[in-house]
Amino acid sequence: MVSRLIEVGDFDLVIFGATGDLARRKILPGLFRRHAAGQFPAASRIIGAARSDMDTEGYRREARDAIAEFGPRDADEAQIASFLDCLAYVAIDVTGERGWSELGALMRPDVVQAFYFSVAPALFGDIAERLARHAIAGPDARIVVEKPFGRDLASARALNATLARHFEERQIYRIDHYLGKETVQNLMAVRFANMLFEPLWNVHYIDHVQITVAETVGVAGRGAYYDQSGAMRDMVQNHLMQLVCLIAMEPPWHFDPDAVRDEKLKVIRALEPVPPGDIVRGQYAAEDGDPGYRDDVENPDSRTESFVALKLRIANWRWQGVPFYLRTGKRLRDRTSEIAVVFREPPHLIFDDHAEQQANQLVIRLQPNEGMNLRVNIKEPGPGGMRLVQVPLDMSFAEALGKEGRDMPDAYERLITDVIRGNQTLFMRGDEVEAAWAWADPIIAAWENASAAPESYDPGTSGPDQALGLMHRDGRRWREIKA
Ligand code: NAP
């Protein structure tokens, strides 16, 4: 099935932080893919901005390298050349005055203007202030703000206030790239475009929900940043929280940015505080000569968590009594992200073969191999009585929808295109981010005031034993961490 392409309008997109890791690995290759797919008009322009002294030709060479390394394997030379033609570069120090008038001279007032803040968060305010002061951003310009959006409620509020001095909420696109994943959007399609699941989507039919985001890598290379953050700030408050919202939200009245975000906000506000007994923190240990977490962050006393598991409760009619178990961590057994909605057992079992009958599960895989499967019980084929076996009704999106197995569009491709289109549905609103911090802050504060260190866990496992205990004591078990 070939996806429909809707061309966007003419645009000028400025990437602040154009020479950085994110621009090289995600933004430029993503833009290239959309350009190659024919989604961008010929007159669209992408303007790189960073301090490095370089001219446009130099930046085009950098972009060519980035596409060669992180772009599609089958990139065509004519397509690359046509993409590079759209690029320009301006050397700007966002904390100073250099470069702004050159940038202003390049911007066209009559096309969509978007400014991607792909720099350290400490610089977001400088960029917003100078864009306004130099009158570079028009009244409908959009700004794209990367994560992390604050490190607690106070800093998120301060950042929202800084941005609000120069831009209206309708102009601010706070990225959570999880929302750009095809499967995550499909969660809404599956729930709200089908009659099949929604009647069952509540405490009467769902036993619990499990969300796992597991990585095999450690924090080496970004230890200094990570040690100031930890799994709670880096993953739970934003990405896992967004997944919880999409599973738990009420149907919005329309697929419209504020209608969707209003419903997500209600979920966050309905979260109960998490008691200390319902949360487990972990740190990966050293093993076989491989460094442990504290070695990776070069802080022998670090108490920052590289793993969190917790049990979440949502206080509303739909979800009262249905636990949401969340876990995420580094150096785990496999790299996998999934949501499993585990249904209740049937009220009465008529088959003798009880042992093999298992609760239905709807498993939504975010990575690898985005897709969904519904695990159902059927009769094992063959004679010899009624024996049951659980099988997946499997749907891999790449197989079902991909063009000759072409990989699924990357989240950044989708999200940047939405910015240019002016659609904020998949971006976090300011009040949503603040509500998520208001929930996370007391948990983090309790850890910071506690003397206990996170539990140690062996690399290549599913985390500390205590995390298994979180489920076992409720008579449930985590799904295996398996790609
Ligand atoms: P990075 O590799 O450190 O790049 C930072 C960029 O900012 C460089 O282009 C740098 O170029 C530019 N820069 C620094 N100071 C500047 C200044 N005063 N004026 C103008 N430009 C300046 O960072 P990154 O990994 O790309 O991350 C960028 C943002 O994305 C951060 O907010 C990060 O948290 C977020 N993010 C990154 C990733 C990722 O995978 N990398 C994932 C999620 C979120 P010059 O040195 O040439 O000025």
TrEMBL record:
Show where the Glucose-6-phosphate dehydrogenase C-terminal domain sits: 188-479
A GO molecular function assigned to this protein is: NADP binding
The cellular component terms of Gene Ontology attached to this UniProt record, alphabetical and capped at eight, are: cytosol
Q: Which residues form the Glucose-6-phosphate dehydrogenase NAD-binding domain?
A: 14-186
Keywords of the record: Carbohydrate metabolism, Glucose metabolism, NADP, Oxidoreductase
Keyword Oxidoreductase part of the UniProt annotation = yes
Which EC number(s) are documented for this chain? Answer: 1.1.1.49
InterPro entries registered for this protein in UniProt: G6P_DH, G6P_DH_AS, G6P_DH_C, G6P_DH_NAD-bd, NAD(P)-bd_dom_sf
Q: Does the keyword Oxidoreductase apply?
A: yes
Q: Which Pfam families match?
A: G6PD_C, G6PD_N
Q: Which residues are recorded as binding NADP(+)?
A: G17, A18, T19, G20, D21, L22, A23, R24, R51, D93, V94, K147
Q: Which reaction does it catalyse?
A: D-glucose 6-phosphate + NADP(+) = 6-phospho-D-glucono-1,5-lactone + NADPH + H(+)
What's its job? Catalyzes the oxidation of glucose 6-phosphate to 6-phosphogluconolactone.
Q: Which family does it belong to?
A: Belongs to the glucose-6-phosphate dehydrogenase family.
Record's protein name? Glucose-6-phosphate 1-dehydrogenase
Q: Which species? A: Paracoccus contaminans
